[in-house]
Design a protein that fits this description.
Structural class: alpha+beta
Helix content: 40-55%
Radius of gyration: 30 Å
Mean pLDDT: 82
Largest sheet: 5 strands, antiparallel
Low-confidence stretches: none
Number of helices: 2
Strand content: 15-25%
Shape: elongated
Order of helices and strands: HHEEEEE
Distance between the termini: 99 Å
Length: 165
């Protein structure tokens, strides 16, 4: 009987010790898995918010280009629009490259709907010209918590083209 009693007491002792090990395992899981996931998700949210804000700024520039096609390539007006957009964003938004940004390209619209380049004088034989303007925007987001696989500051570049009237 005493052997059985010792075995039961040993089992109870092991069971009590296991309760403490669950707390240690939970602390390890929280500290090594959940905390980095939460911190990383905060940084990813900053990146997603800034991407949305850059897309909004690009849409505002498109609206400006469609309403005033003659002034669509004026980098001063575009910089003013971006300055207004940057007041609500996490990082300042600017034109990516000042030399060819914005870029204006003209094509000749053919009768089959295809586009071709104009001749050397810039005149279209069909008489129908289609003009596109392209923009490239950039922003550098400073993330609140540094994640090892994301560079600091995180640079974002977005470009797009719009057809003018």
């Amino acid at each position: 009987m005493s052997c059985l009693r010792r075995l039961v007491e040993a089992f109870r002792w092991c069971r009590r010790r296991r309760r403490g090990s669950v707390a240690v395992e939970l602390a390890l899981i929280v500290s090594f898995l959940l905390v980095p996931l939460v911190i990383g998700s905060v940084d990813i949210m900053y990146v997603l918010i800034e991407r949305y804000q850059i897309n909004q700024a690009l849409n505002e520039i498109y609206l400006f280009a469609w309403t005033d096609p003659a002034d669509a390539s004026n980098s001063t007006d575009i910089s003013n629009i971006l300055a207004q957009s940057s007041t609500m964003s996490l990082a300042p938004i600017a034109l990516a490259d000042q030399t060819n940004n914005p870029g204006v390209l003209s094509y000749c619209l053919q009768s089959d709907g295809s586009l071709t380049s104009p001749d050397s004088t810039g005149v279209c034989s069909t008489g129908q010209t289609v003009t596109y303007v392209s923009y490239a925007l950039t922003a550098a987001v400073h993330l609140p918590v540094g994640v090892p696989f994301l560079p600091q500051p995180f640079k974002m570049n977005i470009s797009g083209s719009a057809q003018l009237k």
